[in-house]
Every structure is written in structure tokens, then in C-alpha cells.
Amino acid sequence: LPCRVTLHSTNATVWQWQVDRLELQGHWQPPHLTLQVEAGLYDGTASGQARLDTGTAEAVFELRSRFNPRPLCSLLATNLQQAVAACAWQSPPRLQLEGWLDVPVVTNLGLRSAQPGAVVRRLQGRVDVGPGAVEGIEFEALQAQFQLTNQLWHVQDLVLHRPEGSLEADGTVDPHSGQFAVRFRSSCDPQMIKLLVKNQRTRALLDDFRLSAPPRIAGQLWGNPRQPESLGLVAEVAATNFWFRNEPILAFTATLAYSNRFLSFVQPQLLRLGEQARADGFGVDLAEQMLYLTNASGTLSPSALARVIGPHVVAVLEPYRFDNPPQAQVWGTIDLTGDRHTDQLHIQLSGGPFHWQQFNWAWLQGRVDWVGQSVQVTNVQGSFCGGHMAGHLEVDLAQRPGPVVAFGLWMTNVDLRRLMADLGRATNKLEGSLSGALIVTYANLARSNSWQGQGQLQLTNGLIWDIPIFGIFSPVLNAVVPGLGNSRARHASATFILANSVLHSRDLQIHATGMRMQYDLRVGFDQTIDGRVEAELLRDLPGLGRVVSKLFWPVTKLFEYRLSGTLDQPRAVPVFFVPRILLFPFRPLKTLEELLPQPSKPAGSASR
């Protein structure tokens, strides 16, 4: 029979809920049962209606509420209880909900529904929340529409507002397996997700970023929170004015991909002040802490790049300095831990000015191959001290003590004055064009006496007499013939060997106007010298040089001296003793020995 029921109640307790006011109306018109309810709850209100078709066992309901749903959690499924527990709000959220259910109906013929309990066929609704938080991530407002169909939750038009930007998303969630897939657009600070990240290395990577403005990110995210390794991401990223490991970056764009704890950047482009770079891609293996670079190119400061990678790279590259960022092509792998020595990095560089130790290049190019603890620098070409230099270098960083190096240098038409300035021996009276080669086959940089190698040098059109070891006879020769001791060296040459950090040349020759000088000389890395020098007057006189030299043989022997001391303060001792009586013809010029610089006498020797 049709019937209608109305119920009013105040200050009631329903299923352990405190209900301040309750109005219920029921209408039975076979086969339909209709219910309408309005309630004033402890901190809000709720209203709704429901309609049951007992003929089909189908029910439809609508609900509108604005109250704290936390007391209802005991009625919800476990996963929904967890979702509500992860949320916080300052004022009760607003909820609109519609649902379609199959419910069991008991008739005279028995149970109408095949299921013993209600089966949700479909739910849909909308939620609006003011200031609050989800999993500790704070927001100013949150709106979303949702549906439950085929046992899958669908979220649409989700918008989360934060002070710095907003997050828009839609997606699906399987409440049974935990699998989800989300499409999103964000202008929020990515640091907000740190609260969701459990892996310490990933959290540390997020800490490496410092933003002045949120990046723009749009993409897709999928996976299962219960299985972190299943999480995946593809997104377009655009960021401006931020810092990574304290290095400023003006702009960065890339397609970002994440899967199996591997973070990839496809077609990245980076802009710094006066610098730019791009690549086919680079990736970070977060599990293994490895960085992979593919066809990267641009003009980036090597020192800034080294600081980003780690202190072990800074230590290796610190002696090599470019005034301006060089043009570079880079590919390979880098160990981000810095202690496993599994790097395989390859760099092609071109630029300048370039500095190494005290030496300076106007321009330099070359290739660097860094594999493990071995560094090879090949195809080096450069503009050096007004001339040209080529070379190669090998460094073994595994040697202890060490490192151990081997290298070859070839130079052509180098300005002697500029070279000596680099060596800290600047003078305006040095001239000449220097060419030659230095091959070092072994050198342990931790052992000063370990250098081995060989080389050769040629000098043309030189003025070298301000170098003390070459100018030792200048005062004497100028006394014999004014200007002879400062005449231009048309040609000079030497070959030498390098043994235990001592250079030894047996054939150092200097051909100058009116004389030839020949050295048998050893020079140590501590600048100590040991050797012998002989000056032959008029030896290179065209046609008659050999004859005249023989005639001046007694005089030549006056210019044969043993050398000792240092490069800056050489000491010369005559090889032969010549009685003063034989020097009578030269008395007007004084004796050569009197003109030569003499070793300083010990204090007090004059009194003896």
C-alpha cells in the first residue's frame, strides 16, 4: 500500500554521530521507495534524497554536504579511510555526490538481487575544499570532479591552488591494485613533492635545486605507490632563473622522462649568462648515481660544469682555465659519487684565451678522453706566445703517489720574450723565434726527480744575452770588440735528454756575429747547472772562419769555462790557466779573467 512518513528529531545520536537536527521524509509508491533527508551535524549540514526501484533492485541517490567527514571514516573502505586521513582542512569541505546502486531486495519470492550486499554501479560528484593540505602538501583551494565506474575512480578537472601557482590534473585510480595514471599541468614549486619522496638520494637531488620562480611542467604520471619502482613520468619542462648546485641558470627546457629510477632529459636546452648548451639527451641513474650525456654541445664554463658534477672533477680541471667559455662537444658517462672511478667522458674543446699553470694560449683546441682514472688529451693545437703549439697528454690518476703524466709538445715560431715572461723571467732585451719539441715519457708529479724524456730546440734572430747563462761572456767580448757580446744570435740549436728531472745537452750551439758558443750543459728542475762552455771568435766568418779560429786558438781557450751555480746566478771557472805574461798584447783591454765575474769570497777571506 502507498504510504508517506515524516520524521523530525533534534539532538539525536545516529550510529555514534551527534545530529543536532534531523528531518526525514519517506514515500512508498510501489514499486518505488523515495527518501529525503536534511541534517544539521556537529560542524555543518547535509541533505540528500534516494529512490529505490524494488522491481529492478536499482537505487539512485543524491547528497550535498558541508561537514567534516572524518567521523564517517569507519563506514568507508580501508583505502578511502587512508585517503581521508591524509587530508586536512581549515573549514569543512563541500561535497556533491550522486550514485547508482544495485541493492538486495527481499520479496515473497526471495532475494531479488544476486549479491548479498549493495553493489555500486556508478558514483559521480564534486568536492571543493578551502585552505588545507594533502599528505602535508599545503594548498589554498582544491576543486575536483570524480566518478567511480567499473571499479575505477576517475578524477577530472582537479585544480589545486598554491601561493606560487596551480596544479591541474585528471586521471584514474584502481582502488584495489593501487595503480594510477594522471595527466597534469603545473606551475607549482616541485619542492612540495619532497614530502612524498622516501628515497634519500632523490630527496637530495631535489635539494640541489633552488628556484626563484616555479617551472612550467605538463605531462603524465603513472605507477603504483605500493611499488615505487613502477612509477613513471613523461613531461615537458620549462624553467627560468634558478640555481642547480649553486650554479645560476637563466633558462632550461627539456622533455623529462622517469622510469625504473632513471631520469632522462630529451633535447635539453640550457642558457646561462654568456653561455648556452644543448644535447640530444642526458640521463641520471638515481639508483647507481651515474650521469649519461649524449651529443651535448655549446659554450659552457668548464669550471661551472665541474662544480655541478662534483669536487673530484673540480680537482682535476682546476689547473686548466678558459677566460671565456669554450665551444665544446661532450658525450659519455660520469660517476656522480666521485669515488668509483667509472667515468667515461669525452670532450672536444675549442676556445681561448686558455691558461695552464703559468702558461698562456691565445687560442686552443683539443680532445679530452677521461676513462676511469686515465685522462688522455689528444689533437691539441693552439696559438702560443705568438707562435703555434701542438701536443698530447696522458694522465694516470690511479698511481700512488701520483698522478703520473706523459706528454709531447711541439712549438713553432714562439716569441722568446713572451715565453720567458710566462716563465717569470720577463725582460725587454730578449728577442727571438723559438721552435722545437719536448717529449716527456714519464713523470710522477709527486716525485720531483722522476721526469724522463728528450727534446730539441732551435732559435733564430735572437737576443739572449740578458739570460745570465748566455750573457756570461758579454762584458769580456764587448771589451775586445764593442758590441760583440750583445750581437744578435742568427741561429741557436740544441738536442737534449731528460733523465731524473735533469736536462742534458751536449750540442747546444749559438751562432752570433763574430763568434760561436758551444755548451755541454746539465740543468736541474731546481735550476742548478753543471757544464762547460767555449766561445770561438770569428768561427763563422765566411770562408776564413776555420783559419781565423785556429789563429785565435789561445784566445779561444780563454773562453772555455766550467759552469756551476744556478740559471740566475751562474759561476764560471776557466778550464785552462794562462800566465799573465802571455796576455801582454791584451793589456790595454785588461785581462779577460779580470773582466769575468768572480765567485764571491767568503766573509773574512780578505784579512787572510
Provide a descriptive summary of the structure in words.
The chain is mostly beta strands. Among the domains are: about 1-140, no CATH class; about 385-600, no CATH class. The chain has a 35-stranded antiparallel β-sheet that branches. A hairpin with a 4-residue loop joins strand 4 (about 45-55) and strand 5. The longest helix has 8 residues, at about 80-85. The chain starts with a strand and ends in a 13-residue tail after the last helix.
Considering the chains and any ligands shown, give keywords for the structure.
single chain, 608 residues, mainly beta, 35-stranded antiparallel β-sheet, 3-stranded antiparallel β-sheet, 10% helix, disordered C terminus
Class from secondary-structure proportions: mainly beta
Number of strands: 40
Helix content: 10-25%
Unreliable stretches covering 5 or more consecutive residues: 580-608
Radius of gyration: 44 Å
Question: β content, as a range?
Answer: over 45%
Give the terminus-to-terminus CA distance: 149 Å
pLDDT averaged residue by residue = 85
The shape, in one word, is: rod-shaped
Main sheet record? 35 strands, antiparallel
Count helical runs.
Answer: 9
Architecture blueprint of SSEs:
Layout: E1 3-14, E2 17-29, E3 32-41, E4 44-53, E5 58-66, H1 78-85, E6 87-89, E7 94-102, E8 106-107, E9 110-111, E10 119-129, E11 132-134, E12 137-139, E13 141-149, E14 152-162, E15 165-173, E16 180-186, H2 200-207, E17 209-211, E18 216-224, E19 227-244, E20 247-259, E21 262-272, E22 275-278, E23 281-285, E24 290-299, H3 302-309, H4 311-317, E25 320-322, E26 327-335, E27 344-351, E28 354-356, E29 359-371, E30 374-384, E31 387-396, E32 404-415, H5 416-422, E33 431-444, E34 452-463, H6 474-480, E35 489-499, E36 502-512, E37 515-524, E38 529-537, H7 545-551, H8 553-558, E39 560-565, E40 570-574, H9 592-595
Antiparallel strand pairs: 1-2, 2-3, 3-4, 4-5, 5-7, 6-11, 7-10, 8-9, 10-13, 11-12, 13-14, 14-15, 15-16, 16-18, 17-19, 18-19, 19-20, 20-21, 21-22, 21-23, 22-24, 23-24, 24-26, 25-28, 26-27, 27-29, 28-29, 29-30, 30-31, 31-32, 32-33, 33-34, 34-35, 35-36, 36-37, 37-38, 38-39, 39-40
